[in-house]
Structure formats: structure tokens, C-alpha cells
Amino acid sequence: MLESIPRWIGLTRLRACIGFSAAIGGVSLTLLVPLETTAAEGLGETTRPFTVGERLTYEISWLNLTAAIAVMEVAPTEDRGGTSSTAKLIGTAQSTPIITKFFPVDNRVESKLDLDTLMPEHLTFRRREGKKKEDIEYSFNQKEGTVTAVRGGTTESLPIPGGTHDIISCLYYTRAVLPPKPGASLKMNVYHDKKNRPVEVRVEGIETLEGGWGKVETVRVRVIMPFHGLFMNKGDIHVWVTNDERKTPVRMKAKVVLGAIVANLVDGWSGVSSVKPGL
User: Residue 28 class from Cβ within 10 Å (0-12 exposed, 13-18 middle, 19+ buried)?
Assistant: First the structure.
């Protein structure tokens, strides 16, 4: 069984978002939504639900096997003068020792985010999956509507709609913008792998979820995306976020070719801490 584990164990192809991407989760999110490029139903006033210093750790399982540990972090940046209106979104995923024997994964994505608009400025993706090693870099110019991509030694500039997100900023954008009301939806453009990709996020319902965090009321969100994001998924991603001011992604789930991949929050919210030693 283990010998057949495919490349989709590379879990940080985030993207989302959450996200939440999503989610997280897979499983994203702006204080000011550009209406000409982003449509949302039922949006009201928004506040930023995350803070600089937030660090969420997820245990990724497949067929009851812990396959990887993923971390999503909002880290500070420093502009001239000692203050900053930006933050660095950092997502990492590392395979557990048992998986590393067959398919090692050590991925890292960093996105520089404008905290006033929640739009990405620059993204780097260090991908290490099996024998594949790849470094990708995107620079977003939202005003001019272009993105400069550096990949495989080639640099090119491509057009993007205003308000375009990357595969990790979309998660945080959704957390801030999408209201926790069943039926609410949000559409955005995500630039990924040389293409502009439409992503839709829908609120399906409110439900109580139980896990290492205890029992908590959550908002169940469905992420509809025509490309592989956080997971090499076969269809949509479901993300559960806390129904409070922080909108913390606590679980993400995506069906794959065989079974499903589930990401559960194990550290970073309300004292949750259940990461197994040595993972």
C-alpha cells in the first residue's frame, strides 16, 4: 500500500485557500474587496480575523495514516522606519518519517501580503517532493495588472485581473471577507501555474465539530476550484472554520483517488496541542 503513495502527498501545493483553502485549509480574504474583479453575496463589514504571530499546525492523515505535518504562520516583516503594513504568510509541509522512506516531502511557500488590502505582493515556493526539486517566484503588480513569474530559469510577465490572489493569500482573504451565513458565496481569481484560475467559496451550513480542540461551533465551507490546490484533490475541498471572530480553520477534507485526505488542527488555537512526539 505505501509503495503506491502518489505525488499528491505534496500537501503545500496551496494553496487553500484552506484553503479555507483552504482551506485552510485548503482551506481567503480583503478588507476592501475590488468589486470589478471579486463578487460576493451577502458581504457586510469585515475585520481581519488573524494577527501577526498566528501559527497553526495541522496533522495530515490519509487512510488513518499520519502522512505529514503542515504549518501556516503569519510572520512580521519590517519596512523602513521600523513599521510595516505587510506580513509574510508562511506555509510548510513535511512528510512524517514513515512516509519519507517512500516519498519525502519538504515544501515551503512564502507570500508577502499587504495588510491594508490583503492582496499578495510577492510569492516564493520551494518545492521538494520525492526526487523533484523546484523553486518558483511570483511578483504581483496589482495596479498594472501583471505578474512576473520566475520558474526553471525563465522569467516572463503575464496579465492578471485586478485583485488576483496567490495560492496561500486566498485563504486569509476568504477568512476576512466571507460572512458566516449559509448561502453566502465569494468568487475570486487565483494565479497558479501560469494560469488565472476562478475559485468559488460557498458557506454550506453551521455545525458542531469535535476533535482535539473539544467541541466547537463551526462554519462548513465548500471550496470549488478547477485545479489542484492544497491537495491533489478529486473535486471540491471542504473546510470547517470556527464561528467566531478568529474564523480559525480547524479541519479540511479533500477526496482523492483513493479515500480522502484530512487536515486537523493540532496546535495554535485555544490551547490545542496534540502533535505526536517525533512527527
Answer: buried
What is the span of the domain harbouring residue 213?
2-267
pLDDT tens digits, residue range 226-269?
655 444 445 678 999 999 999 999 999 988 777 888 999 999 87
For 192, the grid coordinates are 497558479
pLDDT digit string, tens, across residues 103-142: 899 999 999 999 999 999 999 999 999 998 999 999 999 9
In a domain, 102, yes or no: yes
Closest among 184, 206, 205, 188 to 196, alpha carbons compared: 188
| Residue 275: inside a domain | no
274 falls within a domain? no
- The C-alpha angle with vertex 31 and arms to 26 and 37, in degrees rounded to 5, equals 75
- The structure's pTM equals 0.78
Integer-rounded Cα Rg, in Å, for the chain is: 17
Cell of 121: 505582493
Which value, to the nearest 10 degrees, does the dihedral of the CA atoms of residues 201, 135, 67, 11 take?
10
Q: Is residue 279 part of a domain?
A: no
Q: What is the dihedral of CA 205, 210, 216, 218, to 10 degrees?
A: -20
DSSP state of 81: T
**Phi then psi dihedrals of residue 233, to 5 deg:** -90, 160
Domain count, the chain: 1
Evaluate whether 89 touches 170 at the Cβ level (below 8 Å): no
Among 12, 21, 52, 72, residue whose Cα is nearest residue 186: 21
Cis geometry, peptide bond prior to residue 27 (ω within 30 degrees of 0): yes
